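Q: Sequence in, structure out?
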Amino acid sequence: MRNRTAAFYRILEVYPLSDILAMEEGAFDDERDGDKAMMDWLIAVTDDEQLILDHYDELDSGTIEKMLAIYRRVNRIDEKEAKLKNLTAVQTGAE
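A: Exactly. Output:
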């Protein structure tokens, strides 16, 4: 989480995988390129570096999308984003 790897899911939601993998070093304000950032996120999500190292080249966009959906569900991201949206609406309405 501290090197923003966990937040990489937001990139996956916005950009096509082909664009992410084509991102050059420095695109994430560090030394990683898109390929390395993708690999780091997959390792963090699976908590199994060797699994990803062994099978990285076999992963397709469908599998990565499934992993993204699971990541969002496990971390209750949709639920928290809905709460934040409701809170923001309440605060905006109170002004």
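The two ends are 34 Å apart (CA to CA).
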